Amino acid sequence: MAIGGAMIRRLGTLLAVGALICGGVAAAIPAQAQGADDFLNDINGIGIGSHDDPHNFDLVGLGNAICWRLYTGDTPGHVADDLVTKSRSDSRAPLTPGQATAEVDFALTDLCPDAAPK
Question: Could you tell me the residue range of the domain that residue 69 belongs to?
Fold first, then answer.
């Protein structure tokens, strides 16, 4: 009986630890997904990508790259200028300066508010 009780206590401990870990992961996922959804809605609203494009979510990767550049010290204006310049080499219509500035602003607001210049 003592072995059965010890195993039950050990199983209970494992379940409790698992619930804590899974709860932390579950709590983190909606916050990240909400930011990505907001970012996509915002940039789709200014003519970048569309809700019907199966690769639309790839734009979140671009938003994360914008955040990375801001975290490493690039200014929002410099990142926006680069977006305009690099978009000219794509087969799609290039970004306007207004779209690029808005895209950087949306990344800051929706994906990485802590990367904003101080």
Answer: 32-115
Each residue's pLDDT tens digit, 11-28: 444 444 444 444 443 444
Three-class secondary structure of residue 24 per DSSP: helix
The answer to whether the predicted template modeling score (pTM) of the entire model surpasses 0.70 is no
Angle ∠(35,33,97) on CA atoms, nearest 5: 40
> 118, 71 in Cβ contact below 8 A?
no
Residue 9 lies inside a defined structural domain of this protein: no
User: Taking every pair of C-alpha atoms in the chain, what is the biggest distance, in angstroms?
Assistant: 74
Question: How does DSSP classify residue 36?
Answer: H
Helix, strand, coil in percent for the chain, rounding step 5: 75, 0, 25
Can you point out the beta strands (E) in 1-118? Answer: none
Q: Is residue 37 part of a domain?
A: yes
* Number of structural domains found in the chain: 1
Place of tokens 């709860």: 23
